[in-house]
């Protein structure tokens, strides 16, 4: 997405958790604890992926995008589809997005990415464009004075 910025990647943390699970330092129950809300969000607003669940390998992971920001008002903290995110990105100035992967089989879930969307990301581009318009708009509004003598065509 064009206005995507301030991307924070959590894949290192995710890998560390998975390593601990394999070592037996963390039980799968501790990491497979997706709430009913998160599972619902995955069902109704999730984006399917081709990636197998790293825990149970029975199902593909689903990505859920949670949105936060003052401009969202009562819908802050809700899950949104990708198509809805692109609309929000063009209508609001700044939206925080948290991406969580969920397995609908075993309830594995982990935050994988966080970023900011919104029109504020276009501000830099816009000011550039304005400068170009100002410098190229040099033509005054002089009209070559062709006065039409409309009263002359008498018959
Ligand atoms: Zn799973």
Describe the model:
By secondary structure, this protein is α+β, with helices and mostly antiparallel strands. 33% of the residues lie in helices and 26% in strands. It has one domain. A hairpin with a 7-residue loop joins strand 2 (47-52) and strand 3. It is elongated and about 65 Å long. The site of zinc ion has 9 residues, from loops.
The share of residues in extended strands comes to 25-35%
Overall 3D shape: elongated
Helix-strand makeup class: alpha+beta
Following the backbone from N to C, one meets helices and strands in this order, namely EHHHEEEHEEH
Low-confidence stretches: none
Mean pLDDT: 87
The distinct bound ligands, ions and cofactors come out as: zinc ion
| Number of E-type strands | 6
Q: Percent of residues in helical segments?
A: 25-40%
* Span between termini: 67 Å
How many domains would you count in the coordinates?
1
Radius of gyration: 27 Å
Tags for this model:
DUF5318; alpha+beta; 6-stranded antiparallel β-sheet; single chain; DUF5318 domain-containing protein; 5 helices
Topology:
Layout: E1 5-9, H1 11-23, H2 28-31, H3 36-45, E2 47-52, E3 60-68, E4 79-80, H4 82-91, E5 95-103, E6 109-117, H5 123-136
Antiparallel strand pairs: 1-6, 2-3, 3-4, 3-5, 5-6
The structure holds zinc ion.
């Amino acid at each position: 997405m064009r206005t995507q910025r301030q991307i924070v990647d959590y894949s290192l943390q995710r890998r560390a958790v998975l390593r601990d699970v394999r070592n037996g330092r963390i039980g799968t129950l501790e990491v497979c604890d997706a709430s009913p809300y998160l599972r619902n969000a995955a069902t109704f607003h999730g984006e399917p992926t081709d990636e197998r669940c790293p825990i149970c390998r029975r199902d593909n992971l689903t990505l859920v995008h949670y949105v936060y920001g003052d401009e969202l008002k009562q819908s802050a903290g809700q899950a949104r589809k990708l198509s809805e995110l692109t609309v929000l990105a063009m209508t609001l100035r700044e939206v925080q997005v948290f991406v969580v992967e969920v397995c609908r089989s075993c309830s594995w879930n982990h935050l994988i990415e966080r970023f900011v969307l919104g029109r504020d990301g276009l501000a830099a581009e816009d000011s550039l464009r304005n400068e170009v318009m100002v410098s190229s708009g040099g033509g005054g509004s002089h009209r070559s004075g062709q006065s039409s003598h409309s009263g002359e065509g008498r018959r």
